[in-house]
Amino acid sequence: MISSKIFSTFRNMQRRHTTLREKGRRQATRGPAYMFNEKGTSLTPEEERFLDSAEYGNIPVVRKMLEESKTLNFNCVDYMGQNALQLAVGNEHLEVTELLLKKENLARVGDALLLAISKGYVRIVEAILNHPAFAQGQRLTLSPLEQELRDDDFYAYDEDGTRFSHDITPIILAAHCQEYEIVHILLLKGARIERPHDYFCKCNECTEKQRKDSFSHSRSRMNAYKGLASAAYLSLSSEDPVLTALELSNELARLANIETEFKVTLPLTTLQTDCPEGSSRCVQ
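Structure for Transient receptor ion channel domain-containing protein, as requested:
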């Protein structure tokens, strides 16, 4: 039993080192040009044309290159560390996004979903959620941080490749942005915001997170409570939004005296104002 735990720990450490090595490799390939307004030197003319076509929504060119080119790396990134999928989503090009999603081994699908949610692009969100990666629904419940040890590029693990906190799940982000329709879609897919454990919880998970990075642990709790207290999530996820809002308001009032990290920058008590607002909107 002990030997299997040691082996599992060693394997996880090995996978983490591989992930960090791949991150450095991606940054090295991109080169220092991503800090300036020029294309990285590693991009071929074909890749530059492909990224430009995705960014500006040139559907015929993107389709032709994806279907005919034998040398195209459709996961290549520009000087800002964004691939074609992120560029297409960021500029609301639904047709280009759908073409890219048909490719196997497409990278940064998770980042593209978060980007579409943050911009409120409902149709693009629906298109991305039809990707095979979301078939089982597990990808919707895990944050980028929780998926860090996977061997794929579902999320970008470098500071310039993604703009979202690594503890943010799609439904938490949708709740933060008050995107009612997107929250509804994600709830139908089985996504939920898990209520954080008690602040004084001594389970192995909480103990390890506190020991490793107490600030990140508190930040993830704050993000979860912000999602739980949002009007969009309250009104769509609870059978009795008014009662849920009152219970959450009382819980936040108690935590305001405990979660000291955010008392100055973003007091927990400010979230209490969201709860009554959410419940009143439900009643209306």
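The two ends are 57 Å apart (CA to CA).
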